Automatic annotation (TrEMBL):
GO terms assigned for molecular function: signaling receptor binding
Compartments (UniProt record): Membrane
Keywords for the protein's UniProt record, in alphabetical order: Disulfide bond, Glycoprotein, Immunoglobulin domain, Membrane, Signal
GO cellular component: external side of plasma membrane
UniProt keyword annotation of Mitochondrion present: no
An individual GO BP term: regulation of cytokine production
Protein name: VTCN1 inhibitor
Primary localization class, coarse: membrane
Amino acid sequence: GQPTTICHAFVGETVVLPCITSPPGELIFSKSLLYWQINGKIVHFFKKGEDSLDNQEKQFDGRTSLFLDQMKHGNLSLKITNVQLEDDAEYTCIYKPSASDPTKKFYIKLSVSVSPRTDQAPTPSGQSQVSSRSPSEAPCLAMLLLSFHLLVTLGAWLL
């Protein structure tokens, strides 16, 4: 039932897949489970307050991380470094606050493409890399920050 968020990244970049949950109260991670997966394969797994990556898909080994300092505020987003073409997929963020709570699911489609700069010969001054870094990260990050801001604002308003 959740709409799919669409993100884009170029090969070799870092991307943040946004996943924000509410209410923005303190989340208790010793009781919660957080899965990031593609077609049932584990991309990142967090349980009882820590990463549990024993069953993580090999293609993501050492390339995924969560924002541990922001998780208690509802930011369950996943950062993927050194994005590869095979990372192009629909990701599911699955969050279960505790055994008695319902499971929440969020869907994020990551579209990966080869950067135009890898097809060109580098210029003698090396300027071909100057401006192509952040635009692909911006749409997802901007949405994430907006969502986070709204959650904080709503949380303050409800108090």
